[in-house]
Write the structure tokens for this entry.
Amino acid sequence: MSGTAFDFQDVTYAYRSQRALDGVSFSVQLGERVALLGANGSGKSTLLRMMDALCFAGGGTATALGAPLSEKAFEDEVANFAFRRRVGLVFQNPDVQLFNPTVLDELAFGPLQLGWATQRVKDAIEATLHRFGIAHLKDRPPHRLSGGEKKRVAIASVIITEPDVLLLDEPTAALDPKSRADLVAFLAHGLGDGRTVIAATHDLDIIDDISDRAIVLSEGKVAADAPTLDILHDIDLLRRTHLVFEHHHRHGDGHEHDHPHGVHGHIHQGPEG
Ligand SMILES: Nc1ncnc2c1ncn2[C@@H]1O[C@H](COP(=O)(O)OP(=O)(O)OP(=O)(O)O)[C@@H](O)[C@H]1O
Ligand SMILES: [Mg+2]
């Protein structure tokens, strides 16, 4: 699949007087895998919601799949439906996303909206329950699950319809180590070719696996846009944008030193790092 998934030019957005995006420009081609990085409040969730046409640019221009991302364009039901069948967003907070009485209903909702045949819906639910390790939760009300269980159900309920463009807001937040590893493996190898994936995360350990390119936001602006490995090696950038912090530690022999630290471990700067 070729073509442009998203094109944003000088996009601004504000919640009343609170500026969230401030002159954001980038484009993403279909089939690209992009990590969206940035400190708390840098604008990641706002940008993902805009890519999912849940809010619209206050200034500048934004397009998705070649069509304008504007309130007016989305008033058209046919255009809205065509967009929704191709683009899916997993929210940062699963409580916002989950609303069905049971996990089973939650999974069935997307496929039924798309008008899939009954057997296809059943098969997809079966496969998805197993893929995300949530078969034992199928009759439970989603709002009474644990944080990580909710997150897995939310991810499963979007991935079940296999959207061409998958938007993920902090997909590994709240997941236990095994669930996190399974999700990363799935995003790295299980999605099939040609799918566009854009994932906001603070989890620098996973971005080499799930993305080829990283966009770093800082105070609503694009601070960097480069191949993921280049971003991971730019320690100054990561420090400036609060993605790593200076970690001071003392060894058993009394020797002390400082080095950059991410969420889960050391950032390696090279053979001497
Ligand atoms: N509903 C809202 N009302 C007012 N301001 C908001 C709202 N949601 C977000 N903001 C503000 O918009 C800016 C961007 O927020 P956003 O949620 O996009 O950041 P983020 O990068 O996703 O942060 P985090 O890493 O904490 O999820 C912040 O200044 C935030 O305080
Ligand atoms: Mg966010």
Observations:
- The CA atoms of residues 96 and 198 lie 19 Å apart.
- The mean pLDDT is 92.
